[in-house]
């Protein structure tokens, strides 16, 4: 698992532009939103939710493309003829992108809490923890959907199909409790809703109770990784 | 068909169905240790399907594939069989050495650095070790692919059309490398659709339309068909419509 994670990070190291984009783009977008709302109350209310969005979206895209490349280039077929367990393969990806996500979350939350003046009641480290879990959710979802994409075009289209509905229903636009009843029920089964709930809880409460959202997030991550591992077949027709 | 001592691969009555077509039908093949076995046949004859069956990555419909006494693809074989895929299956965005070190770690090789150095020497890529794989020529990339399959000293190396599209000088040196690998006691199975390459092999398996036309030493096949080249022998066997 460590070998695979180290290999994925080495691949990224040869691609400094991707690293820069992973780290810089969320910060630029957060600053842009701060500017749009002139740092006012709207920004304060959506700020915590924004911290949950970027890690998931970016890691979802990167993971689904990276795994699709492994499937199509023959490297996955080679790896599956070697003594590498599927858990090590998936875990290696999750670990490597988890490291990237941690750095990204540290930068984004430092920017939000510092220059952009977002005030939260709870400990800032919890924001980073939630952001990392959230990015692992993106990794797990990306690994899973890459099994259903035959081309890079399809993989990219999974972004609007799988991620965008979660963004619309996560409470960013309208608080989840104010959604029409049916949509509220839908948002209750989408994992991103729980990441946003957790971020909001940390923003509001000095001693936040994160049991429910964290349990749901971890369960989703483990479940999606298990489903993803079921799509890695050593024997194919 | 005689099962010789030292046989590494035994394929018996193998049938593979891919989509609407029967890719392999009643195939019997033996691969022996220390020899180069050439798997020759035209494009679409089932070479890659047979190779994937021996690797245990192909869903089969009937028959058995045994490698070193284990069913193909079973866990103990994952350290014993090196697989050289048709298209280089290495990471273009890693250097040559980084690619090999990763696969060596996955294999659990004891001394990763030493084994990487060894296979780089076998494929003669020492000077390119720090180069990004994406920047290599096609021939060099296919050598990285071969080097990856030699890590951990497997007892069987399977190569799917390794010489396609390479210039004659490079092809010649690759065949010398295969001979060197076989001489160390490793069983080597090489597929090719170029009949000229038959003379490089110790044993031949001629495949056509999912069936084995003939197998034996190159000299045997020429004598049996009364021809003087593998291409002529192949044509003669097709005309006879005979099966082994």
Describe the overall structure.
The complex is a heterodimer of chains A (237) and B (244). The mean pLDDT of chain A is 90. Chain A is an all-alpha fold and 237 residues long. In chain A, helix 2 (16-36) crosses helix 5, helix 6 runs antiparallel to helix 9 and helix 6 runs parallel beside helix 10. Helix content of chain A is 77%, strand content 0%. The termini of chain B are close together. In chain B, strand 1 and strand 2 (21-32) form a beta hairpin. Chain B has helices at residues 47-55, 96-107, 112-122, 138-150, 168-183, 218-225, 230-240, and strands spanning 7-18, 21-32, 36-40, 62-67, 70-71, 81-84, 156-159, 187-192, 203-208, 211-216. Chain B is of the alpha/beta class. The longest helix of chain B has 16 residues, at 168-183. Chain B folds into two domains: 1-80 and 156-211, P-loop containing nucleotide triphosphate hydrolases (Rossmann fold, 3-Layer(aba) Sandwich); 82-153, no CATH class. In chain B, the strands form two sheets. In chain B, strands 6-7-8-3-9-10 form a six-stranded mixed β-sheet, sandwiched between helices. The chains are: A mainly alpha (237), B alpha/beta (244).
Question: How many H/I helical runs of chain A?
Answer: 10
Overall mean pLDDT of chain A stands at 90
Quaternary state reads heterodimer
Give the second-level CATH assignment, the architecture of the largest domain in chain B: 3-Layer(aba) Sandwich
Low-confidence stretches of chain B: none
Element-level helix/strand string of chain B? EEEHEEEHHHEHEEEHH
Q: Estimate what percentage of residues of chain B fall within beta strands.
A: 25-35%
Please give the radius of gyration of chain B in angstroms. Answer: 18 Å
Distance between the termini of chain A: 27 Å
The main sheet of chain B orders its strands as: 6-7-8-3-9-10
The residue fraction in helices of chain A comes out at over 70%
How many extended strands of chain A? 0
From the helix content, strand content and strand pairing of chain B, which structural class follows?
alpha/beta
Shape designation of chain A = globular
Q: Strand pairing plus helix content of chain A: what structural class?
A: mainly alpha
Protein name (chain A): Transport permease protein
Membrane topology (chain A): Multi-pass membrane protein
Subcellular location (chain A): Cell membrane
Keywords (chain A): Antibiotic resistance, Cell membrane, Membrane, Transmembrane, Transmembrane helix, Transport
């Amino acid at each position: 698992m460590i070998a695979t994670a180290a290999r994925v990070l080495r691949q990224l190291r040869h691609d400094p532009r991707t690293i820069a984009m992973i780290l810089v783009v969320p910060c630029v977008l957060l600053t842009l939103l701060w500017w749009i709302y002139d740092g006012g109350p709207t920004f304060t209310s959506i700020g915590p939710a924004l911290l949950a969005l970027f890690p998931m979206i970016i890691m979802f895209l990167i993971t689904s493309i990276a795994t699709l490349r492994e499937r199509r280039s023959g490297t996955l077929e080679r790896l599956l003829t070697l003594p590498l367990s599927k858990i090590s393969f998936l875990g290696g990806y999750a670990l490597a992108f988890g490291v990237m996500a941690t750095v990204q979350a540290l930068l984004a939350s430092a920017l939000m809490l510092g220059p952009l003046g977002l005030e939260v009641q709870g400990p800032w480290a919890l924001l980073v923890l939630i952001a990392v879990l959230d990015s692992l959710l993106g990794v797990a979802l990306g690994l899973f959907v890459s099994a259903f994409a035959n081309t890079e075009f399809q993989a990219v289209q999974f972004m609007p199909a799988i991620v965008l509905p979660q963004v619309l229903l996560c409470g960013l636009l309208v608080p989840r409790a104010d959604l029409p009843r049916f949509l509220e029920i839908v948002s209750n089964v989408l994992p991103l809703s729980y990441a946003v709930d957790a971020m909001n809880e940390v923003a509001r409460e000095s001693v936040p109770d994160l049991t429910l959202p964290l349990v749901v997030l971890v369960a989703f991550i483990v479940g999606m990784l298990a489903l993803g591992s079921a799509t890695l077949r050593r024997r194919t027709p | 068909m005689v099962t010789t001592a030292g046989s590494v691969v035994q394929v018996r009555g193998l049938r593979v169905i891919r989509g609407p077509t029967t890719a392999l039908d009643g195939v019997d093949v033996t691969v022996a240790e220390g020899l180069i076995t050439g798997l020759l046949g035209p494009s679409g004859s089932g070479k890659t399907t047979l190779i994937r069956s021996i690797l245990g990555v192909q869903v089969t419909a009937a028959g058995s594939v045994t490698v070193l006494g284990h069913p193909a693809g079973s866990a103990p074989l994952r350290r014993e069989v090196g697989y050289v895929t048709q298209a280089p299956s290495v990471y273009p965005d890693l250097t040559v050495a980084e690619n090999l070190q990763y696969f060596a770690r996955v294999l659990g090789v004891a001394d990763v650095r030493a084994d990487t150095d060894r296979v780089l020497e076998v494929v003669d890529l020492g000077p390119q070790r720090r180069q990004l794989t994406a920047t290599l020529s096609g021939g060099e990339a296919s050598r990285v692919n071969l080097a990856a399959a030699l890590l951990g000293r497997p007892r069987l190396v399977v190569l799917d059309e390794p010489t396609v599209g390479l210039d004659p000088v490079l092809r010649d040196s690759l065949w010398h490398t295969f001979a060197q690998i076989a001489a160390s006691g490793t069983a080597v199975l090489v597929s090719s659709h170029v009949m000229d390459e038959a003379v490089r092999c110790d044993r031949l398996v001629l495949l056509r339309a999912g069936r084995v036309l003939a197998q034996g030493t190159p000299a045997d096949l020429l004598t049996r068909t009364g021809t003087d080249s593998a291409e002529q022998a192949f044509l003669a066997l097709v005309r006879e419509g005979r099966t082994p």
